[in-house]
Amino acid sequence: MSRQATVERETSESSVQVTVNLDGSGSARIQTGVGFYDHMLTALARHSLIDLVVTAQGDLEVDVHHTVEDTAIVLGQALKQALGDKQGLARFGEATVPLDEALAQAVVDLSGRPYFAHQGEPEGLAFALIGGHFTGSLAAHVFESLALNAALTLHVRLLAGRDPHHIVEAEFKALARALRAAVARDPREGGVPSTKGSL
User: Fold this and answer.
1) Which pTM was predicted?
2) Whose CB among 21, 99, 116, 118 lies 3.0–4.6 Å from 170's, allowing a Cys bridge?
3) Given phi > 0 = left and psi -120 to 50 = alpha, else beta, which region is 112?
C-alpha cells in the first residue's frame, strides 16, 4: 500500500503544498523562501528517509513566521494522511543526536493524540537570529504545529548545546531519526499497534 500524500493549503498569508512519501530514500525538494528552514527540512527528509517536496510562498515582507508555521501545519497534515490506518507500524521512535557541542533527544508516538513537550533550551535561544531570518523560538513552534496536525505525541529535549544553529539542527535531526523509527513497518505487527485496536 502506498504511503504517500499531497496536501495544499492557501490563506491570505501563504500558499503551501507538501508531498510526502514515508517509504522514500530521504530525497528533498524544499522551497520556502526561508533559507535556514529549507536547510532544516532537507535534514528532516534526509535523516527520516521520508521523501519530501515542499513549495511555499508567503508574506516574507511581513515576517517569516507565517510561512514557517503554515508549512509545518501542512507537513503535519500530509504525514497524518500518509500514515493511513497505521497498520503494521512500529508506532514509537526515539533518537538522541549530536551536532558538535549540541545534543538533542526526540521521542515520537504515532498515538493519534496530539501533544508536544519541550525542555532544556537555553533562555536566550528564543531570541537568537539564525540565518538572518529564522528566530530560535520558531523551532519549537514548528515541532508543536507538526505534532498537533499529524496527531502525534512528540517530546523534544535539549541535553547540551551552545550554538543556536547547532541546537536547532540537532533537534530537527533527532526528530527525523525518531520519525524514521516510528513510521517503519514492523514485520511482526499484523494490525494496529494499540490495545484499543485503533490509533
Assistant:
1) 0.97
2) 99
3) left
